[in-house]
Amino acid sequence: MTPTREPAVSARLRLEDLSHRYLRTGEPALSGLSLAVEPGELIAFLGPSGCGKTTALKVIAGLLRPTSGDVLVNGRSVLGVPPEKRGAAMVFQKPLLFPHMSVEANVGFGLRMRNVSRDQTGRRVETTLRQVRMEGFADRRPDELSGGQQQRVALARALITEPRVLLLDEPLSALDANLREEMRGLVKEVQREGGYTTVFVTHDQEEAVVLADRIALLFEGRLQMYDKPQAFYDRPASRRVAEFFGATNFIRGRARNGAVETPLGHLKLARKAPPGDVILTIRPEAVRLEDGENSFPAHVTGVAYLGTRVACSLDAAGVKLRVAMPPHARPREGEEVTARLPAGSLWVLEESP
Ligand code: ATP
Q1: How do the domains of the chain map onto residue ranges?
Q2: CA 352 from centre of chain
Q3: How far is the CA of 230 from the centre of ligand 1 (A)?
Q4: What is the pTM of this model?
């Protein structure tokens, strides 16, 4: 996606074959991570706890020197550049504000350290507080603010330095669900308006999908897939990747002449499958209860009403399938139905079954 305003500051970030091994630990925290972030793009490092997300962020910020590999900003290595000169600003899970200083003083701190004049600092603080919708709070102390407001101030403190790269380490995970959603909107808006090149760390798959232009999924320090959010649902790189994005369907089969022989019958695909044993995957939302191409008889084995959708389990020739249906759908347990797997929604996983 293109930022709404051409950023004066944002940069192209490139990670080249980054690896990191902490002293005294056996397994590397990061192994051969390579990817590029375009100017103004927001990417998310996503993955389970301990997969190396924070390590990667610290390496970009300059807080950690990688065991090997390189970090390039606008084509130049920044490994020899100290953190404060990298033009990167970081926001952490906890706001880490100076408790005895006002919001205004907290936000202006970075500029005062750079000897920017009082007047100019004042003006920039005002603009930045407006950016994070915190105008009117300038005189408050951090303990007079809610958690969400404190995190807005922390964001303002990072933005005021006009970072070339904005690094956000789970900044919303300490907030409650409603506030988190509101703050996601704000982060996205501010990032778009300013066109900041941004790396956002999260272990929350929904958060990554909502916020990111592209997601870098890491397992055990290795990049599993780097693509647009939709691709993780439509064309996952592996079974593990598909599973990380929620319970889904896998069907074993044998590809011949581009189609796949399965216990459910002969399934056609939108693209030809390579010959041999394969695993097909299809999201529960894509399974239809209707007649047509790739349809077969099935038996409803379970129905659960989940508020926004109905989760239905099917058994077809011994294959268990999950189906997500709209909330008004009322399949009955024990019912015989016809299920269909649309060719365009079936994806062949690139791994041996
Ligand atoms: P989380 O989501 O829990 O914050 P993460 O994906 O950010 O996890 P990292 O903090 O990057 O993961 O840690 C990656 C691996 O490196 C983990 O196995 C962790 O135990 C290890 N690790 C992190 N920091 C250190 C350290 N200072 N010394 C030794 N090992 C460390």
Answers
A1: 13-234, 247-350
A2: 27
A3: 28
A4: 0.90
